[in-house]
Amino acid sequence: MRTLTLFSFAFLLSVPTALCAGETDLPCGKHAANSELSWNPAEQFVTPRLNRFYGVEEIMKSAYLAGNDDEVQSLASEYLTLASTYRCNWNYGNAIHDANRYLGLVSLRHGNMREAASYLQLSGKTPGSPQLNSFGPDLDLADGLLKRGEVSPVTQYLTDIKVFWKGGRAQIDAWLAAIAQGETPSLDRLSAAMNSSLVTGAKVLGWAWPELIVLIALYIARKRLHNKLLFVVAATVVSYATSYVVNLVFGFVISKVVPVPAGHLVLIFLLGLLACIFPIAVVFAVTRYYLASVR
Fold first, then answer.
1. C-alpha distances in angstroms, 219 versus 232, 282, 293?
2. Alpha-carbon radius of gyration of the chain
3. Which fold does the domain 21-187 belong to in CATH?
4. Which one of 29, 179, 192, 215 has the fewest beta carbons within 10 angstroms of its own beta carbon?
5. φ/ψ of residue 94, rounded to 5
């Protein structure tokens, strides 16, 4: 009887595992909406194992920065194992890229170029992810290998990531052209992002923004302005001066006080937003002062 009970208990424990294994084999998009194996499970369906899948990369990063290479290798192996289970999750592409990237960085730190190059190749085989597709992958391993003369694997890696990193294609083409000419460009995803067409448009808007604010204020208050030319000149000078000072201060804060990693583009965006708001407030104040002075 005791043997039968133990057998029944073991069978009951095996049922969820078997069911999960069966669901793991389903094609992506075929999982139930409430499954932890779906693309982006709701919070109530995030299991401890899935939560670990989401968080292991940060732990691995900390271990690498602390020089704990054995821990990095163990965490990378765990990350890849979890990725094989959550192959339909939005984080799958991040896992494939970053686990192999950190393994390559460890190899690079120990001077094993061939092994590091092999891991770089594997990291480039990621299918992409929401983060990789928009901000692009970290390029520290590729940059380190290129500086050590490993041209071929870096060229292949850049060609691979070009498939999913559409915003970085122009910069990747420039890097590949420079490499083909025997140059050793610095591979940095932030510089690639800053050279994208979207950022170029933002730069143009940044230069035109102070004057655009002045013209909007001129249009709104046009019936109450007696000397429009004087107002435009004064407001333009104040607006551009404010914009210059704000950008100077924010640039100092980013570079000296709170260094911003390449991936924290959200913080840069917020600072840029504030840089747009300050000139609006100043032009508004100048407009009110000007209207009050001519009454």
1. 11, 17, 19
2. 27
3. 1.25.40
4. 29
5. -65, -40
| Of 97, 109, 98, the residue nearest 144 (C-alpha) | 109
What pLDDT is stored for residue 60 in this prediction? Answer: 97
pLDDT value of position 12 = 34
Q: Are 95 and 53 in contact (CB under 8 A)?
A: yes
Query: What is the amino acid identity at position 151?
Result: V
Listed by start position, the domains of the chain span 21-187, 197-293
Give the DSSP per-residue string, 99-125.
HHHHHHHHHHHTT-HHHHHHHHHHHTT
Burial of residue 218 (number of CB atoms within 10 Å: 0-12, 13-18, 19+): middle
> Tell me, what amino acid is at 216?
I
Q: What is the mean pLDDT of each run of 10 residues along the chain (295 residues)?
A: 39 38 65 81 93 96 97 98 96 97 98 98 96 93 97 98 93 96 92 61 74 87 84 87 81 58 56 79 83 70
**CB atoms inside a 10 Å sphere around CB 176:** 16
What is the DSSP code string of 137-168? Answer: ---HHHHHHHHTT-HHHHHHHHHHHTTT-GGG
pLDDT at res. 28: 81
How distant, in Å, are the alpha carbons of 78, 98, 147, 171 from that of 187? 28, 16, 10, 9
* Among 169, 122, 117, CA closest to 141: 117
